[in-house]
Amino acid sequence: MAKRDPAARRAAIVKAAADLVVEVGPDRITHRMVAGRAQVPLGSTTQHFSSIDDLRTQALALLAKEIDDDLDDVRASLAEASGTADALVEQMHDYLTNSRNIAADVCLMSAGAFDDDLRDLSLRWQNTLIEVLTDYVGSDNALALAILTDGVVVHAALHKTAVSKDFLYTLVAPFMAQK
């Protein structure tokens, strides 16, 4: 990062904050922690962000963007496989075995549950998943699968492990067979 590149410095700060959010939780990050992780002077965090809440919101937005990218992969995989349960299970399992995904998802859920200003950001992934799945299973089943996904994400977070592909298939297949 160039010493005098404010955009790169700001991006490094947001990335560091996002990394810390998934490591320690959104409510535990501080300007000092973020500055240390980003390897920038402490004043840079307060120069670029009006408050720790502003920085936290930007970090959560970056994590939501990462989840959006994962949903693009789900969309592509389902299109390639004509919306099969196997394709969805494979994508879900890959997602559930990535600890960063799980932590980011739970942080976003929690943030949206307690902060009205973050609710739309928190719901973005679920709404997109429903949109992706609706063409294959209809809107009601897409909603059911999104809710089911929330549950397996929370399960993975609490148990520190994903459920098996076979178990995911048992959960998902009945919804994929209907439209």
TrEMBL record:
The cross-references to InterPro entries, in alphabetical order and at most eight, read: Homeodomain-like_sf, HTH_TetR
Ranges for domain HTH tetR-type: 7-67
Q: Which residues bind DNA?
A: 30-49
PROSITE patterns (UniProt xref): HTH_TETR_2 (PS50977)
Top-level taxon of the source organism: Bacteria
Which keywords are on file for this protein?
A: DNA-binding
Q: Does the keyword Ribonucleoprotein apply?
A: no
Q: What is this protein called?
A: TetR family transcriptional regulator
